[in-house]
Specification:
Number of helices: 4
Helix content: over 70%
Order of helices and strands: HHHH
Structural class: mainly alpha
Distance between the termini: 12 Å
Number of domains: 1
Largest sheet: none
Number of strands: 0
Length: about 110
């Protein structure tokens, strides 16, 4: 169940990051409300996941996969460029998350 909570937290993390861009410095009401709710949802579901997972594993996977999702959706939604260094960085994050999971035995 912890990994399901973590997956939900990652979705909230991505929504939070993308929503932050849409708030235009928290000057837009509804994007700001959405962003704050996404942040709260992400922290709440992360805390549920961390009941079972090691904090080092859970937090690293949350931020790493959240970052990857944000970059991919940022390219699709905001037309940001995905470059070779970004792709190599994604691969390093994914490899690191897998290695942490295997090392923790979770």
């Amino acid at each position: 169940m912890a990994w399901i909570y973590l997956a939900i937290a990652i979705v909230f993390e991505i929504a939070f990051a993308l929503g932050t861009n849409a708030t235009q410095g928290f000057t837009k009401l509804w994007p700001s409300v959405f962003t704050l709710l996404a942040a709260a949802g992400g922290i709440f579901t992360l805390s549920l996941a961390l009941r079972t997972l090691d904090v080092g594993v859970g937090y690293t996977v949350w931020t790493g996969l959240g970052s990857i999702g944000t970059v991919i959706l940022g390219a699709l939604i905001y037309k940001e460029k995905i470059t070779l260094p970004k792709v190599l960085s994604f691969a390093a994050i994914i490899l690191g998350a897998i290695t942490l999971k295997l090392a923790a035995g979770a």
